[in-house]
Write a structure and sequence with these properties.
5 strands, Arc Repressor Mutant, subunit A, 140 residues, homodimer, alpha+beta, 6 helices, Dna Ligase, domain 1, DNA-binding
Chain lengths: 140, 140
DNA sequence: TCTAATTTTAGAATAGTTATAATTTAGAAT
DNA sequence: ATTCTAAATTATAACTATTCTAAAATTAGA
């Protein structure tokens, strides 16, 4: 909590209650929330919160490398406070996004015909699968 | 061309000039166009073309496995008529999407703690890099 | 040629996100 | 403690991509 405040100060951000609430919600959160998920959560405590505040803060956090924007869901963006390199597996039925922690750095190398043209920066691996819950639901 | 028509017939789709134009534009296209890219292209020949037609046809083609929807760009969807398994590399400066043909099926395996929960369906690998053109432009 | 079903079209509607301008607040300086 | 200024929040409008709707047009088969 003090760390939270220190972290914000370091980054040249003013400490507002809304901001703290957003940060607290995100910290350690592995649910990959969308802006709306965050909005709905914060709204419980700050009913006047605006979407603009959510997006402003996400922007500030993104710029400072505290949050990653995940572009897997074609409907909306999701946010991930875990900035360690990791990958995701998405259930093709319920669309839930889960983390995959595994180092593929050796295994996944660009072929030469690509490295001749591109200076590599990084990679994301998205797996698709059916989660246990959806398997149980069976059929379709 | 005849193949095109045959292909559509097989799939239970009526053959309209707009549809043919869309299919012809997509066939063999490696530029990963967005709906608007397609719209603008078709508009040259069919000025009355509507976005609804573009989306309708993309939907029809998606359902029939002729086109894949790519969710890499957080702004909009892109479409890829190449349904062979392959991956992509995106220039982090100009956002151009390029193909990567390389088989990572052996290298990229889900760790056990994931396969216990998920029945694997597939994966996408997105690489990020800076293309030669953007490298030349230097600096920023 | 006639008809039924499908497709196209224009335009409205919706969802997610960004921009704007006024008001409020945090935090530094006094 | 009070004042001040920059930054943050808010309500709202605007914007972009996409989907929906209903009417008109077109395809393909009888």
């Amino acid at each position: 909590m003090k760390e939270l405040i220190a972290k914000y100060r370091e980054k040249g951000l003013k400490i507002t209650p809304q901001r703290l609430a957003i940060f607290k919600f995100l910290e350690g959160n592995t649910s990959h929330p969308s802006a709306e998920d965050i909005y709905r959560h914060i709204k419980k405590t700050y009913p006047a919160i605006s979407f603009a505040t959510i997006y402003n803060n996400l922007q500030a956090l993104k710029e400072r490398g505290e949050v990653l924007e995940i572009t897997i869901d074609s409907q909306k963006r999701h946010y991930d406070p875990n900035t360690e390199p990791h990958h995701h597996i998405i259930c093709t039925k319920c669309n839930k996004i889960n983390d995959v922690f595994h180092d593929y750095s050796e295994a996944v190398r660009l072929p030469n015909y690509i490295t001749e043209e591109f200076k590599p920066v990084g990679n994301h691996i998205d797996f698709y699968g059916i989660c246990r819950t959806c398997q149980k639901k069976g059929g379709r």
